[in-house]
Amino acid sequence: MPAHFEIRHTVGFEETNLVGNVYYVNYLRWQGRCRELFLKEKAPGILAELRDELKLFTLKVECEFFAEITAFDEVSVRMRLEELTQSQLQFSFDYVRLQGDEEKLVARGRQRIACMRGPNTATVPCRVPEELRLALAPYAVLPVAAGSAW
C-alpha cells in the first residue's frame, strides 16, 4: 500500500450531534485540515503562491461512512493522491479510529481539486505547480510512469 500523509485528531464534544456521534460535516473539515497541513509541511512554497494568484478550487467532496465515532475517540486521517492531471488532483482520505494497537476504518472520502490562476474575475485553469507535484509523488496510489503529468 502506498504511503499516506497523516494527521491525528481527538474528537471533541463540539464535533458531535445530539445523539453523541460525530456530525458528518466534520469529516469534510478534517479533509480540508489534512490538505492544509500537507501544504504547510511538505510544500510550503505553495502557501506563498496561494497568497498571490494561485487558487485551489475544491470541485467535489464525498464521504462514505462505515462506523460511528464519538467524543474523545482518536482518529487518523490519511490522505493519498489518487489521480493527477495537468490541472487537477484527486485525493482519497481514510478515517481510522485508533484504540490502542487496534485500527478500524470508519469512513472513506475523496476530494477533487482544480488549480487555477488569475484575479477573481478572470481565473483560468493552470498546471499543478511543480513543487506540489513533487511533494505529492510519494503519496500517489499508482506508480508514476515516465512521461506522465508528473
Tell me what the structure shows.
The chain has 150 residues and is an alpha+beta fold. It is built from three helices and six strands, in the order E-H-H-E-E-E-E-E-H. The longest helix is centred in the first third of the chain and has 18 residues. The C terminus is likely disordered.
Termini Cα gap: 20 Å
**Helical run tally:** 3
> How much strand content do the residues show?
35-45%
Radius of gyration: 16 Å
Query: Mean pLDDT, nearest integer?
Result: 93
User: Which spans of ≥5 residues are poorly predicted at pLDDT below 50?
Assistant: 145-150
Helix content: 10-25%
Shape estimate: globular
What's the helix-strand series?
EHHEEEEEH
Give me the count of strands. 6
Major sheet, described briefly? Answer: 6 strands, antiparallel
Structural class: alpha+beta
